[in-house]
Amino acid sequence: MSGSGVIKRSLSIAGHRTSVSLEEQFWDALREIAEKRSLSIQALVQGIDTGRGDQNLSSAIRVFVLNTLREDLNRRDPAPSAEL
User: Fold this and answer.
1) Which pTM value belongs to this model?
2) Distances (CA, A) of 41 to 5, 66, 82
3) Which has the closest alpha carbon to 10: 70, 75, 48, 57?
């Protein structure tokens, strides 16, 4: 799989700058989710940050992306398939 390197980006969240390191695929998925919700990546990450508790921000973003994609998949095909 090409393009799987970790990319570090700086964002301003709640008035302070922070760096977030994610694999390129997670940045791509986060961008797609933000576009579908008519939000900036920064606004979406700020919402994730608000609800993450003690979880590392990068991990919280990965879990958010995974859960969002799972929800989208379940809306499309509610019956799980036994095939991989």
Assistant:
1) 0.83
2) 19, 16, 35
3) 57
Q: 21 in helix, strand or coil?
A: strand
Q: Look at strands 6-13 and 16-23 and give their pairing.
A: antiparallel
CB 45 within 8 A of CB 30: yes
User: pLDDT tens, 7-35?
Assistant: 999 999 888 899 999 999 999 999 999 99
- The residue assigned the tokens 């799989």 is 1
pLDDT value at position 76? Answer: 81
The domains found in the chain, sorted by start residue, are: 6-76 (1.10.3990.20)
Average pLDDT over residues 74-82: 71
Q: What's the one-letter identity of residue 63?
A: V
